[in-house]
Design goal:
2 copies of one chain form a homodimer. Chain A is an alpha+beta fold and about 240 residues long. Chain A has 3 domains: about 60 residues, Winged helix-like DNA-binding domain superfamily/Winged helix DNA-binding domain (Arc Repressor Mutant, subunit A), CATH 1.10.10.10; about 45 residues, no CATH class; about 110 residues, SH3 type barrels, CATH 2.30.30. Helix content of chain A is about 40%, strand content about 25%. In chain A, strands 4, 5, 6, 7, 8 and 9 form a 6-stranded mixed β-sheet that branches. Strand 3 of chain A pairs antiparallel with strand 3 of chain B. Chain A binds a DNA duplex (30 and 30 nucleotides) through helix 3.
DNA sequence: AATAATACGCCATTTAATGGCATGTTTCTT
DNA sequence: AAGAAACATGCCATTAAATGGCGTATTATT
């Protein structure tokens, strides 16, 4: 069963893939399967080890090759958007009051951040601290809750991530319709309701917006810089106080 | 500024890394920087594209090479344990009632699962559905809550993931100390309290355990198989009913 | 129209990969 | 204790791939 000819790069990938299927494999078996000599497999293994794949070999009769159990996972390619969503999820999970199964999340987050382009790193590094997870929403809030449209969440999230101003059409508590120009600086979740907090340019003040009361959201090209956290203390406290 | 000689593999990595630093780069610049000819760079770019890296090129004066913004993220290598913790985090985030910024988590989860060895996939695929996120714990529960030791959570989590029986020393509601032999089949979070549900071999019945009342947990080598979900309906309802 | 960039085909040359063989080492079986 | 089955590594002739140089085509800007 010889596979069609593979370039060296492809063969390395193939070997790693075969080793992940923790069937008992010998170097000889690999050689036959990939249609190359034992010597070549041997060199490929050395190369894989050089490149950080922890191939383990049991010598002697009955031996063979394997990857350690810990190494179940190969390389994961994520798009920018997927990585960001992952970061948001991690932020949520990390802020749960009871992190027992997720002791190493910080390490994962570091790896994720490290894989971003340097120009994005700065923006992304502080992201986690600007997402707050509160408690559950009050019954009154729950009653009036409605899910968000994808365009709105897209615009808000992008504005939040890339620090760009967003133009909102908002229905406020009293039911009045207003247009705002907002820097989305913080996100807060009182399950299931998300809030955006930021500098409101029309009002020249920190304001918070219940996301499901936003009727339209349009991303602009105007960048903004982060304001000091303490400016938001009051707004955060306000939202949290909505709870019964 | 010529880097020390690189093998082709290394050069491909280097090019991808340089492109991630979205500095304006031309093929000629890369050639000088890496000490190879323009023709070689050109071929390397073709190779990268073959391997799925979406290198974009602007032709003409002022042009150059770049990766699209979306592509911030290269390849992420996670250990088995990290991947599992990531899956758990995803499960938690996905079960939040308001998933607006995390619409694509399912795609990420699929990629993650796909990167596992086939033999592990089965176990891991069903993992998410066996983690339940409830609401917040009641005041009464909160009062008696204490955080878990790392050894206990390690044993419980491993037992849950690898489907192996766990021996518990448990202080029950009445304060009695008992020893149990449990198959940890479900996890349930009423923030911040985790519960393990599973088949109790001493009692021959489904039982649930508040994790912070577990005094000791020892992993055994005895494997178990999953029981049908409906057997746990009652126990799940019970725990959820603890809330006020 | 000139220029600066990528894209790609061709070919001689250089370098790296390969196979074969020999040798050493570890571990299990008999 | 001997033998067999596995990995590890060195050496060398052979083969295949990568490289550089050149030419040409294409695209976008000035």
């Amino acid at each position: 069963m010889r596979s069609s000819d593979l370039s060296r790069l492809e063969r390395l990938d193939a070997i790693a893939a075969l080793l992940k299927d923790d069937a008992a494999l010998t170097a000889n078996g690999l050689a036959e399967r990939l249609g190359v000599s034992l010597r070549t497999i041997s060199r490929d293994l050395a190369l894989l080890r050089d490149r950080g794949v922890p191939v383990e070999a049991d010598r002697g009769r009955g031996g063979g090759l394997r990857l350690p159990r810990q190494w179940g996972v190969g390389r994961l390619s994520l798009t920018y958007r997927e990585a960001v969503e992952l970061l948001v999820s991690l932020a949520i999970a990390e802020q749960l009051p009871s992190p027992w199964l997720i002791a190493n999340l910080a390490a994962i987050r570091r790896k994720l951040v490290a894989s971003f382009a340097p120009s994005l790193k700065d923006k992304i590094a502080g992201l986690r601290s600007r997402i707050l997870i509160g408690g559950s929403a009050s019954a009154a809030v729950l009653e009036s809750f409605s899910p968000l449209g994808p365009e709105i969440s897209e615009a808000l999230l992008t504005g939040f991530l890339e620090q760009r101003r967003v133009r909102l059409f908002y229905r406020d508590v009293a039911g009045r319709l207003t247009e705002r120009e907002v820097e989305p600086q913080w996100l807060l979740l009182n399950t299931p309701v998300w809030y955006v907090m930021g500098w409101d340019h029309k009002r020249q003040a920190v304001r918070s917006f219940r996301c499901d009361r936003i009727l339209e959201a349009h991303l602009t090209d105007v960048p903004f810089t982060l304001r000091p956290a303490r400016e938001f203390d009051e707004a955060i406290a306000d939202i949290r106080a909505i709870r019964p």
